[in-house]
């Protein structure tokens, strides 16, 4: 621009100094100036077009960036929702599994308790049956032995009476017979029924069938029978004492035999089962506590992950704001350049007008 002004000024001086220069040169100079103005106008139009293209490019870039940012946010939200749903489903499944395990364990415990009670009842019933059979056997044996002894005694007495004479000197004194204690009421009744009718006939037997020494044999037989009775009485006392001891030891269950090795084994097995059940319950409680701790850890991890996601979103928003600010600054800078360019063009036009006015 300064060179052109200097050239114009030199031409004006030449024209003033040399007024005889033809007008053709002035016309050529004017055409050159017009061409130069046209070239400047074209350059300005190209600059404006370039600026418009840059603005369009920036707008496209902003739109693409916004779309990408929105898509990333949507994807991130979807991922977060999916993770949250998956964690929620896992927690529900774990809770259901825990409840199912607890129900199964409760059922197993109930079944084991029921089996133990059933076994105990069966053992008690068997023991009671054994005791009842033993008691019945002992009673029957004692009654039968007493009846047999009484019958044998009275048969011997009857046979001795049949052999003795009816005289008072040889007849056995009634004191010896009465001194014998009756073993039982049933035995006495049976003996009386068997002894009364023959006694009447046996007293009036003929003296031809007399025994030489009947009293000596009767005394021996009585002594032997009394010894047998004493032994049986001692045995019965011993049995009664044993039964009383058993009743005192186990008053609820009645008379029971001493425990057999099989019963001891069953009791040991029951104790072992109870110990195993208590251990299983402890293990279940520990498992429940561990699961509860794991759930708490998962929740904490989920909360921490959620905080990280929020921080990332905040950072992305800040970056997006910074980019927008940077773009605004670029636009402002372009506008300033355009304004400066327009001012330069206006100055050039004013100078050209002044030169034309001077020329």
Describe the secondary-structure layout.
Layout: H1 2-17, H2 23-163, H3 174-178, H4 185-203, H5 214-249, H6 261-358
Give a nutshell description of this structure.
Helix content is 88%, strand content 0%.
Q: What would your notes on this structure say?
A:
By secondary structure, the protein is an all-alpha fold. The chain has a domain at 124-233. It has six helices and no strands. Helix 2 runs antiparallel to helix 6. The radius of gyration is 69 Å and the shape is rod-shaped. Mean pLDDT is 76; it is low at 167-183, 193-212 and 251-259. Residues 1-129, 161-203, 217-332 are annotated as: Disordered. Residues 164-176, 185-195, 236-299, 308-332 have a biased composition (Low complexity).
């Amino acid at each position: 621009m300064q060179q052109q002004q200097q050239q114009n000024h030199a031409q004006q001086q030449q024209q003033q100094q040399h007024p005889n220069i033809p007008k053709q040169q002035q016309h050529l100079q004017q055409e050159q100036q017009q061409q130069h103005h046209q070239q400047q106008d074209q350059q300005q139009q190209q600059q404006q077009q370039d600026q418009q293209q840059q603005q369009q490019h920036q707008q496209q870039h902003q739109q693409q960036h916004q779309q990408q940012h929105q898509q990333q946010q949507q994807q991130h939200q979807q991922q977060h929702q999916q993770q949250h749903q998956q964690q929620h489903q896992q927690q529900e499944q774990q809770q259901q599994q825990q409840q199912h395990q607890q129900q199964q364990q409760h059922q197993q415990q109930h079944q084991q308790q029921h089996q133990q009670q059933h076994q105990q009842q069966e053992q008690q019933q068997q023991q009671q049956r054994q005791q009842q059979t033993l008691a019945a056997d002992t009673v029957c044996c004692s009654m039968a032995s007493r009846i047999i002894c009484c019958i044998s005694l009275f048969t011997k007495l009857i046979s001795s009476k049949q052999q003795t004479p009816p005289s008072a000197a040889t007849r056995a004194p009634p004191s010896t017979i009465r001194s014998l204690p009756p073993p039982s009421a049933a035995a006495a009744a049976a003996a009386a029924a068997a002894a009364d009718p023959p006694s009447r006939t046996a007293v009036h037997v003929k003296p031809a069938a007399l025994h030489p020494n009947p009293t000596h044999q009767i005394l021996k037989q009585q002594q032997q029978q009394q010894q047998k009775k004493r032994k049986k009485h001692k045995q019965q006392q011993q049995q009664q004492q044993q039964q009383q001891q058993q009743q005192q030891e186990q008053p609820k269950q009645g008379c029971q035999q001493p425990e057999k090795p099989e019963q001891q084994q069953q009791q040991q097995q029951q104790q072992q089962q109870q110990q195993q059940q208590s251990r299983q319950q402890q293990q279940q409680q520990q498992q429940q506590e561990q699961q509860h701790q794991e759930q708490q850890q998962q929740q904490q991890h989920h909360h921490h992950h959620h905080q990280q996601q929020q921080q990332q979103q905040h950072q992305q928003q800040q970056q997006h704001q910074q980019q927008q600010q940077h773009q605004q600054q670029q636009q402002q800078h372009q506008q300033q350049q355009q304004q400066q360019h327009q001012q330069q063009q206006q100055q050039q036009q004013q100078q050209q007008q002044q030169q034309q006015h001077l020329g």
